[in-house]
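Note on ligand handling. Small-molecule inputs were canonicalized before submission; formal charges were left as drawn, and no protonation-state enumeration was performed. Where a ligand contained multiple stereocentres, the stereochemistry in the source SMILES was retained. For flavin-adenine dinucleotide, this procedure yielded the string shown in the input block below.
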Amino acid sequence: MKKVVIVGGGSAGWMSAAFLAKVLGASVQITLLESKQIATVGVGEATIPPIQLFNQLLGISEPDFIAATQATFKLGIQFEHWGKINERYMHAFGPTGKQMGLTPFVHYWLRARAEGDNSVLGDYSFNSLAAKKQRFGQSTKKAGPGNPSLVYAYHFDASAYAQLLKKYSLAQGVVHCEGTLADVQINALDGNIQTLKLTDGHTISGDLFIDCSGQRSLLLGQALKVPFESWQHWLPCNRAVAIQSDAQLAAPFTRAIAHSNGWQWQIPLQNRTGNGLVYASDFGSDAQAIRTLEQHLPGNPITDPNVLSFKVGRYRDQWRNNCVAIGLASGFLEPLESTSLHMVQSSLVRLAKLFPALEILATDVAEFNRQATLEAEGIRDFIILHYRQTQRQDSDFWRNIHSTPAPESLQDRIDTFLASGYLARRNDELFDENAWTQVLIGQGLIPKRYHVLAEQMPKSDLIVFLRSLRQQVDTFSETLSCHQSYVKNLVDKKVRNYA
Ligand SMILES: Cc1cc2nc3c(=O)[nH]c(=O)nc-3n(C[C@H](O)[C@H](O)[C@H](O)COP(=O)(O)OP(=O)(O)OC[C@H]3O[C@@H](n4cnc5c(N)ncnc54)[C@H](O)[C@@H]3O)c2cc1C
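Structure output:
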């Protein structure tokens, strides 16, 4: 396995090139093919915390990254009008409250609630309160009890990030090839991809091919004919319109605002705001979607509406023969929980761990595909949850949501949580119990019972316990800086720490 060929120069292509060049070093020669004629998807600006590890592994410093990509910090996602119109909740990163022995914090909160306490779950989250107050800060001390810290991701300009990674990759020796793929030659004996033929007659051969060609899935889907598994019956949205508007005071969270015909993202960057409406062509027209988005922009538009269509679902295998698909070429889930770039990252880590030395082993391929399937299905269920647990009935779009039963894996979880408040992270999935709990409760699903161990705390102690946690969160939030100023200072390379 000497020659790795990446097809596609979008976020997935350049993330792959940078990562593989860094991890595999001189043991492989990497070529990236991209077409000037075919645009990248041009969206994908909100992330989740593991992106920090990706940059750290590459050795890209945070101030450099923030300055190069117009990035801001992200502490979570605020969901508005999802459970019911006029309700909102935050899916914040980082812990909520404090686990007591074996009993998750939520059971103490549920007990207090049953006894008349009216605090909301977010009152116990450092991230949630900081986000609400539009504050941010980083600790130089190791996080731990008595030394809280925020868990964060970024909002950034995806094209600028791809450019940063391109520069990085070229410096690591990645060969950049401009051209348009016209044909894929497959070895009839073993079914492996042998050579890529470009429209200008040039050819590129390789040992391992990484398909980052976007939704066209030129290698995995088209050349190798791996079947696509559609999830549209669970997630009906198949279109999005994006409009950028001018910069506003940057909030440290993404907004996901439900409307009668879909949902809107709002992503604050330093120099502009990214906006989009995700909707279903079965329940509304492009014109209607554009109107909805234009009516709800936070500022003046600076781009024309860009309408995109997408297929929700994934290719059954993400690695077939000598081809691994990464990014949109492997499938897509709507960006409600900002998971796509993370899935690029996790596919790359998986590939690096199973990278073939001499030959591709069927056992490694099967393991890669098994892990990728579990990851995608866990995220799929988490996204479907937002739609299932809603009381909205104000349009066909929302009324239709319940017409298909939820995946069994999700329905089980909802039923168990409703009955007893029990939740367990499955198969090392991306979202942990705290993430599921915030969304379940945020969408209005309150368990009928709480754990018996939560009963053991005397009522007066419970009140003091909860009050002191709220105070700790509030006191901490007061030590933080205004998010907007923090970003500005960071860009000026004046990192401000709090003790
Ligand atoms: C509406 C929407 C919103 C999103 N929001 C988020 C978000 O907030 N957070 C997040 O993590 N992700 C988000 N995503 C997903 C994210 O945009 C993608 O995962 C990411 O950009 C990776 O895209 P890609 O590189 O796989 O594909 P693309 O950007 O489509 O790149 C494909 C590449 O393949 C090349 N190519 C295609 N055909 C040929 C050919 N014949 N020859 C040579 N080259 C070719 C193109 O030139 C291009 O360089 C969103 C996606 C959509 C659709």
